[in-house]
Amino acid sequence: MNICLIFFSATNNTKTIGEVITREIEKNSRSVNLLLIDITPYSVRNQKVNLKQCEKFIFGFPVYGWRAPSVVREWLKTLEGKGRECAMFFTYGGINSGVVHYDTYQILEENGFKVLSSAEFIASHTYNLGGWNVLENRPNDEDFKIARQYAQSILKKFQESDLHSFQIKPHEYSDKTLKRIENNPKRMVNPPRWAAECDVCGLCDNLCPTNAIDAENQIINEEKCIRCFSCVLNCPESVLEVDDLTRLYKMALKVEHLLEKEINNRKSKIL
Ligand SMILES: Cc1cc2nc3c(=O)[nH]c(=O)nc-3n(C[C@H](O)[C@H](O)[C@H](O)COP(=O)(O)O)c2cc1C
Which one of 125, 127, 207, 232 would you pick to mutate in the ligand 1 pocket, going by the greatest count of ligand atoms within 8 A of its CB? Predict the structure, then answer.
């Protein structure tokens, strides 16, 4: 059986969970061929990815403003499921996974996939790079254990031939509300900037998921930048810096009616 695990991961959390799932599936079945496809780079999403050989799919994405990143959603809409079965998983920074399960489920089903299951994993928040201290050691062993259990349940479903029914309860948020939530990072977080001259290795430019960086001229296109901080994390000279975002953290807690304690008690789960 050929399984393609397709993931987007700007700062490696989703990739880490994807790798745990991959290893567990490979450990449990000799007849599975697992192909990992990283769609984070702009260049990958802008060429036609050949998915003909994939019989089953596992999709893994981070939560950005309660949903999968908009660039991922746009890319998913270009795929043809052709009745093939898939499973989904998400990582999120403990604030709110929002409507990500239903929203992504809908896109996949509308594009001809048969979604069998979903799971969410707790992970360090991207904005720890801007001074937050949220779930810094996650995912941890407990999260990995759930990832391995999820891998086993995905494999079982893929191997069974009987029809599975999996549904996710719809949400009641309007498009307008969801758009506003999704736009918050762009509205409230400035793109990273160069703190000094650099050697122009071009890594930031190559890795940027939205082709927003002109490394040579040290310019980041504010409109294209999705504030994912891939460039900040991966810069070998650590020359890219971001604003102090601690005020934004306090705001997020207030808006979401959250206590810090609740975030720290969050658990990864299979739906
Ligand atoms: C633009 C942006 C929006 C985010 N929105 C949310 C959110 O709505 N809820 C949440 O709990 N975490 C949110 N996060 C945190 C990420 O979901 C979390 O850190 C995730 O594990 C990052 O995955 P990655 O390391 O694979 O890129 C957001 C991060 C970014 C960069």
Answer: 125
